[in-house]
Design brief:
rod-shaped, 4 strands, about 200 residues, single chain, alpha+beta, 4-stranded mixed β-sheet
Length: about 200
């Protein structure tokens, strides 16, 4: 007598049907299918994780660039405001002194240029009161035609008028200083506006 009736039969399914046993080829096909399915799921998870990581890195990079841009502009603005006293001394002291020292030389240079265009014509330089001597000293002695330096009380400091024959030219260093001062003032004003909107 056999004891098979005492042992559990694993060939039966839970529902009472017979368990289907696979041969070696079918089992190998099932293993390959399971491997392919697992590999595909892993690949999709990897791609999805990479996309999320890439999106996060892009967002962090954009935020960092935005922060750097803001920091850069804020630094430039604050530096501009700290340089305001230097700009003021440049416009109010250094540039006027530099232009004043070079005023006579600039007039002679302009006059020589005009004289090359109109050879042999009488030359006149109209300068503000008190500047005649320094201009006369710089005039070349070998000029082909007589040159007169004339004081004109209507001219302000830094202004002059040159005349060679019928050709005239005006020199206005004070106007140049005014435009430079205006540019510096506008630049500093914009910087102050930027700081006040922070």
């Amino acid at each position: 007598m056999s004891i098979a009736h005492l042992l559990e039969d694993f060939t039966l399914q839970a529902g009472g049907g017979k368990l289907h046993l696979l041969d070696e080829d079918a089992l190998e096909e099932q293993r390959l299918a399971a491997f392919e399915q697992g590999y595909s799921a892993g690949w999709e998870d990897s791609v999805q994780a990479q996309e999320q990581s890439r999106g996060q890195v892009s967002a962090e990079l954009a935020k960092s660039l935005e922060d750097m841009s803001f920091t850069y502009h804020e630094a430039v603005t604050r530096m501009t405001l700290s340089l305001e006293p230097m700009f003021q001394s440049l416009v109010q002291v250094i540039l006027p002194e530099t232009l004043d020292r070079g005023f006579a030389a600039r007039l002679v240079e302009q006059l020589a240029e005009m004289a090359r265009e109109q050879v042999g014509q009488p030359m006149q330089i109209f300068v503000p009161a008190g500047r005649t001597g320094e201009v006369e000293v710089l005039l070349p002695q070998d000029l082909s035609s007589p040159t007169r330096v004339i004081e004109d009380p209507s001219l302000e400091t830094g202004q002059a008028r040159l005349q060679v024959g019928t050709s005239q030219r005006e020199v206005d260093c004070s106007g140049l200083l005014t435009s430079v001062a205006g540019a510096f003032d506008a630049y500093v004003f914009e910087a102050k506006e930027a700081v006040s909107h922070e």
